[in-house]
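job 3f2a | input accepted
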Amino acid sequence: MKKLSVLFAAVVMLFSVGMKAQKVASMDVAGVLSLMPEKKKADEQLDAYSKAKQAEMQKEAQPYQAIAQKYQEEAPTQTAEVNKKREAELQKMQSELQTKAAAVQKDVADKTDATYAPIEAKFNAAVDKVAKANGWDFIFDANSPSLIYKAGPDATALVKKELGL
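job 3f2a | predicted structure (165 res):
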């Protein structure tokens, strides 16, 4: 047993000597991004774009809703064959609306990606510059649920300064 503990201690010492000490910092990513004027402007533009697309979809859904209501009211007085045709027509219209809704969601996602890309690039460049200037190997998001280590220096103020915030 004593030999095993000595061997274990030797292995631990070898690993600790062989490992380079990592310099780690944490920062409030959401806090920094919320202060960037470009992000605020992009959020407003994307919100307006999303609302316009939603209004467009609602406008396109109105004829479907009107026809569905009409068919539902008239169904008891119609024959089974007529009701079946109307049901098929409504299903076709619903399918078209779903296709359009998927296209709208894709448009909004593409617009979001394109709008945030330059903001992310600017933010990442500032983080890279601050990390290199201070010799940090890692900077973790202080708000991340998978935060491993937060006792290091906080880079938030330096990144804000680099961005002029």
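job 3f2a | The first strand starts at residue 24 and ends at 27.
job 3f2a | closed
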